Amino acid sequence: MTLPVFDLAAIERAATSQLVLDTVRAALIAHAEGRSSVPPPLHMAFPEADGDCHVKAGWITGAADFTVKIATGFYSNHGLGIPTNHGLVCVISAHTGQVRALLDDRGLLTAWRTAAAGALITHAMARPDARTLAVFGTGEQALLQATWLAELRTISTVLVHGRSPHKANALCEQLHARGLDARPAATQEAAAADMVITTTPATSPVLNATHVREGAHVTGIGTDMPHKNELPPALFHRAQLIATDDHAQCLDHGDFAHAVRAGATAQDSDIAAGHLLKAPADRPETAITVADLTGVGALDAALASAVLDQLLR
Amino acid sequence: MTLPVFDLAAIERAATSQLVLDTVRAALIAHAEGRSSVPPPLHMAFPEADGDCHVKAGWITGAADFTVKIATGFYSNHGLGIPTNHGLVCVISAHTGQVRALLDDRGLLTAWRTAAAGALITHAMARPDARTLAVFGTGEQALLQATWLAELRTISTVLVHGRSPHKANALCEQLHARGLDARPAATQEAAAADMVITTTPATSPVLNATHVREGAHVTGIGTDMPHKNELPPALFHRAQLIATDDHAQCLDHGDFAHAVRAGATAQDSDIAAGHLLKAPADRPETAITVADLTGVGALDAALASAVLDQLLR
Q1: What is the DSSP string of A4-26?
Q2: Residues A66, A80: one domain?
Q3: Which domain does B94 fall in, by range?
């Protein structure tokens, strides 16, 4: 029997936004309820090529499949005219250990589960009448977060804040093409939107906590390593509700970690994002809410398995 | 571009014994000289299915490729009529991070590199005039170790010791089919052979150290977990030369570890097996020598890369 390998085009067709949102929602809830298994990742470094490789595994307890995801980042590749990131997902039966298939997704599913998680949590935590969205950052995730959130609720305007005016304009064009009103904005105006999503690789806060309005919600998705930091500790101090996608991980290397270390909030001040998807918390009109998402391996497993089922249907 | 996947039959054709022996020899030397990178493996357990998954990565420093090897063992599979072990090897460029190919080898390359390492070290450490070989154990590795050693030197007789007379006879038949003289033997006779290779999953020593003759060489390859143990500490006490494939690993969970903990030998009494392949040590006629092999991830990387080069030629 030949091992099935599915390429990017097939995966892109199978992974409809509805499938991704439903699967990520269920996986975040399962993870919040302790029904997941995520071992410490394996890591290799290739200093001479400015590259690294991360291998992450995940399993929703009791699910039919688990996954092993191999992701590489070689940061001199752009000079060679090839993509920086590569990777694939291996879907394996949790009943027999047989490799069911390989998804040669070039990192697509990781990007989409990240976007879906951000959109779902932002939608669940923001006020029902929140309308303006600001995205910090002008990369793939900025586009995806706005696009996926627009699948869940009406967005009146997307304010785009980026260091490069050229890239901010280009993102606005892409958002227009998807039917969204969008325009570049300075950091102070962007920080004052009803909903704020930060998607940068910043190593110091991208907004000032005093610019965030009462009643607003802020989701940070870019802080996935200890040296990164997008949201200021003072924002966590102001927040009346803090959600994390994985408490231990956010306490280790999320924006939440920076806030706890700065003494701006207590280390048990957060609740699991998945719980809010199951039962939204009551929020006072004037509350500020914050979500810190660092990426959960169990979501990779759930999504790859669901996409494979779709591909084999 | 579709990701190339090579199946077992293609890999089996490409991995000639010469290629495997040459590659494993060079990789053991590189590992002994510190020219390898092997991060801690990733592990997942599936208790309800009596299964586990290990992911191991390896790189010979400076080589063009590194590998990520996924191996599963699901020990209730035999009841389902499917193999217990599954796995594949992912060969990745160490220059760009691009996945070059997948080797769907079902564990073949791991078995072959283990056999090649055992045969190479046994050949390097045994007396030039050693002729009789005993294998303890009657599984795949017993067959492979005898067969590969016979590629390197003349073996007059293979003495097969196993707990099941039926399986010992079956292995003798297989060895006959490969042109080797072979017969079942009791533990005392087998332990007195010129060369001894143990290939069992035993949890207590399979031979008595007093039965091993002066001038003999013993290689243990079955002790790859802390609870396993094939060779008695007293054998290490008698030995004048002890080789390990990886000092730290053998000190953690090899037969060498049992001997050191029992006080039978000093924890710095071993030398790297790879050094002996490069420059064989002088050995007195009457010396007993011992090799403890626990399996080195860098060998997987070297072999998979070499086999892929052959497949793409």
Answers
A1: PEE-HHHHHHH--HHHHHHHHHH
A2: yes
A3: 5-109+298-312
